[in-house]
Amino acid sequence: MRKILCAAVFICLAGLSLSAEKYDLLRVDANIQPKRLSRGQEGHVVLKFTVEDGILISSQPSFIIEIDPSDTLAFSKDFFTASDLEIGVKEQGGKEYLDLSEPVLVPFTVKPEAQRGNHVLKGKVKFFACSVEEGWCLKDKIEFSVTFYTSKRDLSGE
């Protein structure tokens, strides 16, 4: 009986991982510009999105980019909406959706107390993906991370 139960759990978990791949509706590639940073320097997290064919990313409810707390980078907010970042809106079939064809830039400043070395910034994007053809919408999120380097040089003037 125990073997049957273990096999059933394994099959369910395998099925969940396969179905998660099915819903890869939005992908994100994250970078930081510039790649090498100094204390006090301004830069951008650059997010390039790829949307699955036949899928639209709804402009309402909100598209939110959340940034995890960082000891190295200072952001004006913990999260940003599409309107905060001036992401364009298009219309198709009477529905508005986000134009994610251009990279999205999230501004930051390197903290004056930032330690020299390699760092990782993490975040997530919360969104509503819709299929106009099939008539459904799905709330989802994707996580991203990006590595960057800070030098001991100080541009903050302190």
In words, what does this structure look like?
With 158 residues, the chain is mainly β. The strands form 3 sheets. Strands 2, 4, 5, 7, 11 and 12 form a 6-stranded mixed beta sheet that branches. A 4-stranded antiparallel beta sheet has the order 1-3-10-6, with no helix packed on it. It has a single domain (25-154), classed as Immunoglobulin-like (Sandwich). The protein is built from 1 helix and 12 strands. Helices cover 13% and strands 53% of the residues.
User: How many distinct domains?
Assistant: 1
- Tally of individual helices: 1
Strand content: over 45%
CATH homologous superfamily annotation? Immunoglobulins
Low-pLDDT stretches: 5-21
- CATH architecture annotation: Sandwich
Q: And the CATH topology?
A: Immunoglobulin-like
Topology at a glance:
Layout: H1 2-22, E1 26-33, E2 36-39, E3 42-51, E4 55-57, E5 64-67, E6 73-74, E7 79-81, E8 89-92, E9 95-98, E10 104-110, E11 117-131, E12 136-154
Parallel strand pairs: 2-12
Antiparallel strand pairs: 1-3, 3-10, 4-11, 5-7, 5-11, 6-10, 8-9, 11-12
